[in-house]
Amino acid sequence: DPGVSVKPYPCGSLSHPSADAMLGLVVEHDVEPDQIIRIRVRAGSNILNPLRYGIAQNELEGKFSLPFIMSAIALRRAAGIEEFHDDFVLSEPVQAMMRKVETVRDPEIEAKGTDKMRSVIEIHLTSGGRLERAAEGYRGGPERPFTREELHGKFRECAHEVLSED
Fold this sequence. Notes:
There is one protein chain. The chain is of the alpha+beta class. Helix content is 36%, strand content 16%. It has eight helices and four strands; from the N terminus they run αβαααααβαββα. It has a four-stranded mixed beta sheet. Strand 3 and strand 4 (130-135) form a beta hairpin.
């Protein structure tokens, strides 16, 4: 009780709702990295304090860095096993994108309490537009369990380095 969770991303679970919101915005609006001026992540201190790394310098810091996770999704539309490697974290495109990510403690989100992992993702675009999505739950948790297809995809992602497709 409350049920089983399967982590959709190989990083701190407090980032998962924000990662899902970012992924949804990027995919649904077909946002390309060069269209992004700035990404703002508004959240309470229960999210921002543990996810404390700004510009990640290695894969371990990346696991606890909202700027890294937002950047990976902006650049690759993924934040999976392939992204959590030092060479990717330290690559110039990732380092440049992380500098565009701002994390902000939001008093309104803070006032809602710590019973859920809440945040709001904003993507500011070169066109002058702004995309925004509130995040509260995440795929793989008791409230939004993985579909069978998502579960199979997660297994394939985890196993591909040691098992053949067959």
